[in-house]
Design brief:
Blueprint lengths: L12 H5 L19 E2 L3 H19 L28 E3 L6 E2 L5 H38 L17 H10 L1 H17 L14 H11 L12 H14 L6 H41 L10 E2 H12 L22 E2 L1 H11 L5 H38 L7 E2 H14 L2 H4 L18 H6 L11 H24 L3 H15 L5 H4 L20 H12 L132 H8 L3 H6 L15 H15 L16 H6 L32 H10 L5 H13 L12 E2 L1 H12 L5 H14 L4 H31 L7 E2 H9 L7 H8 L14 E2 L1 H14 L4 H15 L4 H22 L6 H18 L5 E9 L9 E9 L3 H4 L3 E2 L7 H7 L3 E3 L24 E7 L5 E8 L12 H39 L7 E9 L7 E9 L5 E4 L4 E2 L9 H8 L3 E5 L2 E9 L5 E8 L8 H26 L15 H22 L3 H8 L14 H25 L12 H4 L5 H8 L12 H8 L4 H7 L2 H21 L1 H4 L11 E4 L11
Parallel strand pairs: 1-3, 2-11
Antiparallel strand pairs: 4-5, 6-7, 8-9, 10-11, 10-15, 11-12, 13-14, 14-15, 16-17, 16-22, 17-18, 17-19, 18-23, 20-21, 21-22
Helix pairs in contact: 4-7, 5-6, 8-10, 11-25, 11-26, 15-18, 15-19, 23-24, 23-27, 24-27, 27-30, 27-31, 29-30, 30-31, 32-33, 32-36, 33-36, 36-38, 36-39, 38-39, 39-43, 39-46, 41-44, 41-46, 44-46
Length: about 1500
């Protein structure tokens, strides 16, 4: 059956509400779709097709209503209904295709006869031409050619067309006539006997001959040899006559010949190019790591080509076919197969594109080395897990694991700690494990995930600023003498105490400065940037940036954007887009550059090069101070003491970084932020007085290595190409070569690759408890009748392979991911080996703990087995797939268990369960979960072993429930159709259209198969009646129906004052069945083309209820189109339709819950983008069941937030398969483990955070791309944590309300406006609650010390320098403005008071009641009237950086609280426009959205 969908436009809905009076339908009746005929003949088929298309266009042209704008209104009707504004969708499930009868048989016969006659005539002409050619060949053999006729071929002496005319018309006959005449003359000897008179006249003879042999009238027997050659000459001459057929044919032949030769030359060239490319590919094959047989997995090469073809820079489009990527690693390619396979995919590549592919292959070969290295590490950790899992229970204790990581971290050396990640910080600890004061108020930079990261970045900022400033000032000098004098002065003033061997590391300009390949001269914009960074103290100047893939910003202290940037503009940029190319000195120059290695790749390590770590100068590096709680109470054992790194020997800079990262890894946004200091920082530390921290003395050899290393780093062309195995090459060689394509070692740190990947074989390590317990049940003959049902349950469980995070233990995938996050991608394998040895010695369990773990594993397996048995029993009992069981029927069988001996236990179990409210008729319905809980409680009250008792009870109930074979088959078919509805919701990409499709398909299929009926159906949802409230506070709008009924039903409105039973269903909450509608008297017929007395059939109306049993719509099914006059619905059909309504409700709310979550995510990302600048992009993914059989799950790219903060929401989200992500598997690792993943791919670093369901499994992930920066600054890192904590809390709340596990928590007044409005403010509401709770926990002394701040510095004014005084004044202004803004919220009368400008009077409002008012303040309340513009004037001048640097917890709280209140106030003022979910309509490919509230947030 073909299914057609027509969506209405939400914008036209309100305007059409009045026009949808049922007495006068707004649309003219249309002929029923399906009456059109499809035919194969030309005219008739075209007419039929046009008719069908016109009908579809008419339906699609109806007003659209977005499926995403569902609302729930808090209106005073009944507490048992929910009012929404859903989508309008139309379906045709019975589209009949009729064959046309106008294609007559005679026409077919006529065409056949005409075709046969034409073929015969064509064959006759061909035979005639062949015969003519054969006769000419025979004549040539008899009569030889006379080549004297070739003398007529001359194209120069006269006009060619005249010569052709003579040769064609006259000369063939004339020449023969002259020849005959001369022969006659010779025969009569007229030439020898001149004096003899004769009657012979040559002229007359010639004339007679010409007349007798006129070719137009006399057909000669044949041509002479002379004539034959003359005719050939004539034909040759005709070629040179312009505008003739021969001339055109000749030209065409010449062109064809030229093209043929050209094609042959091109083909020869292609063959040469192809051979050359194959040779190049064979050489490139040597760059790859191969298995012991010298082969590469085909899926790896397919992934490489897939990434290249998907590159948007090349725009391949549909020119290249989609690769069918292999699902396994079994298929392998040797060198020749590798060459042939790639060659077959790039046949039409141009040279430039092939060069790009070669670069891509080289980079991917290098990335594949990293993939194998990480895979070796994962296999090492997987074996460690199996070793530590002594009892083989499948999990390890989380707290003991974290305690061991902390001990290992503390006992590591400084160099090693710089690459490891702090296990005491997020993401190792969860948000729930952090105190609110620590989470919101901890501003200690030492607690970063990387040790002392911010200080390293700040020091690099100062060094680079000095280098570029000196360079700019040198360029401004006019002559070499001034240059020399200036250099001497700069050397004497800048480095008074720096040793001579270190002075060479400060960069200064040279006349013969060498630049990189892509940047021969420094751009004017960069010169202005460097000049401004030195001369314009206290100012922020942003230059134009070419927008590509990241956000740049004029950053204060290395990360924040200019506060003066206007909203809507691109974030204030300071440099051109793309990797910055630094300048380098020629060989032999003593000029270098002191650059912190924390943000670059490549350094000297004992075992080669490895990416990634922050490096600091030895003298100023200190170990991470263990401030705050070490969380020892949550660890089962305290291992080791804090490692004191301050006593260690200081190490040189080049030996403390195990990174392999070139200068390009300093991302553009981060480098821009580095080059711009805050006002206070630049005033306090001007360029001329930069102090270099003392370093360890280095030898000349070390200095030379550092300088060569810096030169090579600055000359890198691409980040990925910077990876290499050693530093033995000289700087000049590195400048000329692409390092990624240099010969590589066939081993990784001395180890060869086995040929297997843990990433591709992860399933053998993942333990699926469901499948194991299902297999055990299959082997139990007691439950044979349940085996088929359990198999169906297992097959319907589509999303597999995800691990649930529980906070107590780790399974294998989670353990491996945790250790990989701790070690990172840059540490050598020796670090992993050391960690593995440490764990094997340190992870020890007592016998009690082992027994406890075994018992826990047994109980978990038992719970899974019980769940499968009870779910299968429920489905067997509910043979009609209604979704519920009657409690009375269940109790009747339970009381008969053991002949009533366990009745007392059953009654006791009822005391511990809360049954749902009875339906009309005192019927108590048990859902599947309620039934399972009820049986489990009964089993717990029975005597004996619970497992045996459950199996005995299930066996009894299974045999007691009698179901026939036909009922079993019907049950199986109906379960399949219901599963399709739920699957449509899970794979819809947040769209209701597939849900409506499968719902109506289930109804019609069941009616045809099990009821022998033809039905029509429609779904109507409750809405608030805003236009005509006199006709009722609510109305029912038909939002979806079958296509046949679309002209009469779609978008029509049913009011309470109209006839109909739908509102009776809404009020009573139970189905109503009308067997014969013509005799009921209260049925409203939408189709007025027939009289009511002629309407025959049955009608069934069912309520649609949510998890709280509130009614939000009605689903109606009728048989008015059935040919039988009397065709009622049977009881089993009614029960199945109730099941369809139940599953539709679940799927409907599933889709809308995902909509609301995306809405929350958009709001959170907008908030984060307004206070951070180092995030390049954020991509949101959802998990869905895979369309391929046997696969686990896929990811859907729901939306992408770009550099400007605009979110691109896809209408048809792209699907990402695991098999296409060998090089980008971090997304699937995040979903598999439900843990945060830190990864680096193609030079860009990613922070991937899972979005968890209430069960702990990941339902999606947020991918934060931070560009080439190693990590965010601590302030930005904490803000990211705040955003994710709030989004996760909102997800838990939305999903809990969906399932009915928690009650709705309406805190703000704006949340009563509807579901969509609530989703738009849920992020701010949760954040507001956390800040209010944090403020409650503060002591009064915090406020007192803050109020006294402005008095302390003034006690000794002479002790403060100018810069310090300015900083103190700025801090005092910050305190006054933030506190005044907070007071204006809770005491808006202060605006009109004279106290507003007097701080001494304003601070009197800061009393014990202020915090109480702040904690109970609702910015969306109707009685709240605040001056948002006035409050914003106090707050907007203070950036996020200033607040962070000030470091006061109260100012931090009130700063965020004020911004959130301003955002909520703005949203409340624009309620109808600002919180509408910005999801694409049916005709959009994507939309761009940015949620409100960000305009009030402080720019960085």
């Amino acid at each position: 059956m073909a299914t057609f969908i027509a969506i209405e436009n939400e914008k036209d809905k309100e305007g059409k509400q009045e026009a949808t009076e049922v007495n006068e339908p707004s649309e003219k009746p249309q002929s029923q779709p399906g009456s059109s005929a499809l035919d194969t003949s030309s005219n008739v088929a075209e007419e039929a097709t046009n008719e069908i298309k016109s009908q579809e266009l008419k339906l699609e042209g109806q007003p659209e209503t977005s499926t995403d704008s569902t609302e729930e209104f808090n209106i005073g009707v009944s507490k048992n209904i929910v009012v929404r504004k859903p989508a309008k969708v139309v379906f045709d499930l019975d589209q009949t295709v009729q064959d046309s009868n106008l294609d007559q048989l005679w026409k077919k016969n006529l065409l056949e006869r005409v075709e046969a006659r034409a073929l015969a005539m064509q064959q006759k002409i061909i035979d005639k031409d062949k015969l003519k050619k054969e006769l000419e060949k025979k004549a040539e053999k008899k009569i030889p050619k006379d080549n004297l006729a070739k003398e007529w071929f001359n194209i120069e002496n006269m006009r060619v067309d005249d010569r052709v005319y003579l040769l064609d018309k006259l000369l063939p006959t004339l020449v023969l006539g002259v020849e005959k005449m001369l022969m006659q003359v010779e025969r009569k000897k007229l030439l020898t006997e001149v004096d003899i008179p004769t009657k012979f006249d040559p002229i007359n003879y010639l004339g007679e001959y010409l007349m007798r042999n006129n070719p137009y009238y006399i057909k000669g027997s044949g041509l002479s040899g002379y004539q034959r050659v003359m005719r050939e000459v004539t034909e040759d001459l005709k070629i040179h006559v312009t505008n003739t057929i021969n001339n055109r044919v000749s030209n065409m032949k010449e062109k064809i010949k030229e093209r043929k030769e050209q094609r042959e030359s091109i083909n020869d060239l292609k063959v040469k190019v192809a051979n050359t490319r194959k040779q190049t590919l064979q050489e490139q094959f040597n760059e790859w790591i191969v298995d012991p047989k010298g082969m590469i997995p085909m899926t790896v090469i397919q992934n490489v080509l897939h990434e290249f073809f998907q590159n948007p820079d090349f725009q391949f489009g549909s020119h290249f076919k989609q690769l069918n990527i292999a699902d396994s690693m079994e298929q392998r390619l040797n060198k020749m197969e590798f060459t042939e396979y790639i060659s077959s995919q790039i046949v039409d590549f141009k040279t430039e594109m092939f060069e790009e592919l070669l670069k891509h292959l080289c980079h991917c070969a290098e990335e594949f080395r990293e993939v194998i290295k990480m895979d070796m590490q994962r296999q090492m950790f997987a074996e460690l897990f199996l070793h530590c899992d002594y009892g083989k229970v499948g999990f390890l204790d989380r707290q003991r694991t974290l305690a061991l990581l902390e001990t290992f971290y503390d006992q590591s050396s400084k160099m090693l700690r710089s690459s490891l990640r702090n296990p005491r910080q997020w993401p190792f600890i969860e948000f729930e494990e952090m105190d609110l004061s620590e989470f919101w108020g901890d501003m200690d930079n030492q607690k970063h995930i990387y040790e002392d990261f911010d200080n390293v970045l700040l020091e690099m900022n100062r060094l680079l600023s000095g280098k570029h400033a000196g360079k700019t000032q040198s360029e401004l000098l006019k002559n070499s003498e001034d240059q020399h004098e200036h250099d001497k002065h700069r050397k004497s003033t800048l480095l008074p105490s720096v040793p001579e061997h270190q002075q060479g590391t400060i960069a200064r300009p040279e006349p013969n400065e060498i630049l990189t390949e892509e940047q021969d001269t420094e751009s004017t914009g960069e010169q202005e940037l460097y000049r401004d960074s030195i001369t314009a103290q206290g100012q922020h100047k942003g230059s134009t940036m070419q927008q590509e893939t990241y956000r740049g910003g004029s950053i204060e202290e290395g990360s924040h954007r200019e506060s003066g940037v206007e909203q809507g503009q691109q974030r204030g940029s300071v440099a051109e887009e793309g990797p910055r190319r630094g300048s380098v000195t020629p060989k032999g120059s003593q000029r270098g550059s002191t650059v912190e290695d924390g943000l670059r790749r490549g350094s000297v390590t004992p075992k080669g090069l490895h990416r990634g770590s922050v490096v600091e100068d030895g003298s100023r590096r200190e170990s991470l101070s263990r401030k705050g709680s070490r969380r020892s109470s949550r660890r089962e054992s305290t291992i080791g003491e804090t490692y004191k790194g301050s006593t260690e020997e200081q190490e040189p800079l080049t030996e403390t970084s195990p990174e392999e990262q070139d200068m390009d890894s300093i991302s553009q946004s981060k480098e821009d932020s580095i080059l711009t200091e805050s006002e206070k920082s630049r005033e306090a530390t001007p360029f001329e007085h930069i102090e270099i921290p003392p370093q360890e003395e280095k030898t000349e050899e070390q200095i030379s290595k550092e300088q060569l290393f810096t030169i090579s780093e600055l000359q890198e062309e691409d980040l990925v190409s910077s990876k290499k195995d050693n530093l033995s090459e000289t700087a000049e060689e590195k400048v000329q070569k692409d390092k990624a394509c240099e010969p590589k070692s066939p081993h990784i740190e001395g180890k060869s690759w086995s040929g297997e990947l843990f990433t591709c074989n992860w399933k053998k390590y993942a333990k699926c408890e469901d499948e194991e317990q299902a297999n055990l049940i299959y082997g139990n003959s007691r439950f044979t009748d349940l085996h088929s049902i359990i198999r169906n349950i297992q097959s319907y469980k589509e999303v597999k392979g995800r691990s649930a995070f529980n906070g107590v233990s780790f399974n294998l995938l989670q353990f491996v991911q945790l250790l990989e996050t701790f070690v990172g991608e840059d540490a050598p394998l020796s670090v992993s080996e050391t960690l593995t040895s440490f764990f094997k010695k340190g992870y020890v369990e007592t016998e009690e703990e082992k027994m406890s773990a075994l018992e826990e594993a047994r109980q978990k397996a038992s719970r899974v087995q019980q769940g499968l048995l009870l779910q299968a029993l429920f489905q067997m009992w509910d043979s009609d797939a209604s979704g519920f069981l009657d409690l009375k029927e269940v109790d009747e069988l339970l009381y008969a268990y053991k002949e009533g001996m366990e009745k007392e236990s059953i009654e006791t179990a009822k005391l511990f369960i809360q049954f749902p409210k009875p339906h009309p008729g005192d019927e108590v319905r048990l859902s599947s979960k309620q039934f399972q809980k009820y049986i489990e409680l009964i089993v717990s009250e029975l005597n004996g072993n619970e497992d045996h008792a459950l199996e005995s009870l299930v066996e009894f109930l299974m045999t007691a429930v009698e179901r026939s074979h036909i009922e079993g088959l019907r049950n199986s078919a109906r379960r399949k159709w219901l599963h399709h509805i739920q699957r449509a919701a899970e794979t819809s990409g947040v769209s209701l259209e597939p849900v409506y499709t499968e719902t109506f398909k289930a109804l019609t299929q069941d009616a045809q198969v099990h009821g022998n009926k033809k039905i029509s159906a429609h779904i109507s949802l409750l809405e608030e009646n805003q236009l005509l409230p006199d006709r009722g506070t609510v109305l029912l709008r038909n939002t979806a129906c079958t296509l046949e009924d679309a002209p009469f039903v779609l978008n029509k409105v049913l009011y309470r004052d109209m006839k109909g039973i739908s509102f009776t269903v809404v009020d009573e909450g139970k189905p109503i069945h009308v067997p014969q509608v013509q005799h009921h008297g209260n049925i409203f017929f939408w189709n007025h083309s027939h009289k009511e007395t002629d309407q025959n059939g049955s009608l069934l109306a069912l309520p649609l209820q949510d998890a709280y049993m509130r009614i939000f719509g009605v689903m109606a099914v009728d048989t008015l189109r059935d040919p039988l006059k009397i065709n009622i619905f049977l009881p089993h059909e009614i029960r199945f339709y109730q099941g369809v309504a139940n599953v539709f409700s679940t799927a409907y709310h599933y889709v809308h819950s995902r909509e609301h979550i995306l809405h929350v995510v958009i709001t959170g990302i907008s908030w984060l983008y307004d206070i951070t600048s180092s995030i390049t992009s954020v991509t949101t993914y959802f998990t869905e069941p895979s369309p391929e059989q046997g696969s686990d799950y896929v990811l859907r790219n729901m939306m992408v937030t770009g550099p400007l903060g605009l979110t691109e929401i896809h209408r048809n989200p792209p699907t990402i398969f695991r098999k296409t992500c060998i090089f980008r598997d971090f997304l699937f690792r995040c979903i598999d483990s439900s843990e945060v993943v830190l990864a680096s791919v193609h030079g860009e670093n990613h922070i991937v955070v899972p979005l968890r369901e209430r069960t702990g499994e990941a339902m999606g992930a947020l991918d934060f791309n931070i560009g080439r920066s190693k990590m965010l600054l601590y302030r930005e890192f904490k803000d990211l944590q705040k955003m994710m904590k709030v989004i996760q809390a909102a997800c838990y709340e939305i999903l809990g309300e969906l399932s009915g596990e928690i009650k709705k928590n309406l805190v703000l007044e704006i949340e009563n406006a509807g579901e969509v409005q609530r989703a738009g403010v849920l992020f701010f509401r949760i954040m507001l609650q956390e800040l209010q709770e944090s403020l409650r926990m503060l002591a009064s002394t915090h406020f007192i010390s803050l109020l006294l701040y402005d008095y302390n510095p003034l006690a000794e004014p002479e002790s403060l320098s100018d810069s310090q005084s300015q900083e103190v004044e700025a801090n005092i202004k910050l305190i006054h403005d933030i506190l005044t803004g907070a007071i204006l919220f809770v005491d808006p009368e202060l605006e009109f008071s004279s106290d507003l400008g007097n701080w001494d009077k304003c601070k009197l409002h800061i009393n014990r009641y202020l915090v109480e008012k702040i904690c109970t303040f609702d910015p969306t309340a109707k009685d709240v009237k605040v001056n948002s513009k006035l409050i914003a004037e106090y707050i907007k001048d203070h950036s996020r950086i200033k607040v962070w640097k000030f470091g006061n917890i109260i100012i931090e709280y009130l700063y965020h609280w004020s911004h959130i209140c301003l955002a909520l106030t703005e949203i409340n003022q624009k309620l109808n426009d600002s919180v509408t979910p910005p999801f694409p309509s049916k005709t959009d490919s994507c939309v761009y959205a940015k949620m409100p509230g960000g305009s009030w947030l402080g720019k960085c």
